[in-house]
Write a structure and sequence with these properties.
- With 174 residues, the chain is α/β, with parallel strands linked by helices.
- It contains five helices and nine strands.
- A seven-stranded mixed β-sheet has the order 5-6-4-3-7-8-9, with helices on both faces.
- Helix 4 links the parallel strand 7 and strand 8.
Length: 174
């Protein structure tokens, strides 16, 4: 039986020399790999009491939606600024060169709701930290953050030290 890591294609020197790019699309392209990814992420929620799953654009949607469906939970979109049609709340975060902003609908999380955040990858942790702050600004409680892959060398988990963070695959480097 294949492990999830067996479905990940590692591309050396992309997008620049010295970087190993971990390609999640190779998991999505294989029915067994996709099933294993969803099942593995969903297993990280076993026994957890929560109300809502939120996923960050766009791969958090890909992995979060089937889990929300399987567990009969609502799914909340966390999108790039300007993509949601109703009244929103927003949070900024730093990128390597500059900053970015994400948004959620103002009515997407109700005060007191317990929220799980899902994304495909944790690198520096900026995007998901901003998403957690959005949830909290609406009165929600982030009870767990789950990732398919973690690039531990980029130390994103340190930004999220106040949260219960889980990753299915952990790569020690960048």
């Amino acid at each position: 039986m294949k492990k999830l890591e067996d479905y990940v294609v590692s591309i050396p020197d992309y997008p620049e020399p010295g970087i190993i790019f971990r390609d999640v699309t190779s998991i999505l392209q294989d029915a067994e790999g996709l099933k294993l990814a969803i099942d593995s992420l969903q297993a990280e929620l076993d026994g957890l009491d929560f109300d809502v799953i939120a996923g960050t654009e766009s791969r958090g949607f890909i992995f979060g939606m089937p889990i929300a469906y399987n567990l009969h939970k609502p799914f909340v979109l966390v999108r790039k600024k300007g993509k949601l049609p109703r009244e929103t709340v927003s949070a900024s975060y730093d990128l390597e060169y500059g900053s970015a902003e994400i948004e959620m609908h103002k009515d997407s999380i109700k005060p007191g709701q317990k929220v799980v955040l899902i994304d495909d990858l944790i690198a520096t942790g900026g995007t998901i930290e901003a998403a957690a702050k959005l949830v909290e600004s609406l009165g929600g409680e982030v009870v767990r953050i789950i990732f398919l892959m973690e690039l531990a060398g980029l130390k994103g988990r340190e930004k999220l030290k106040n949260y219960d963070v889980r990753s299915v695959i952990r790569y020690e480097g960048n």
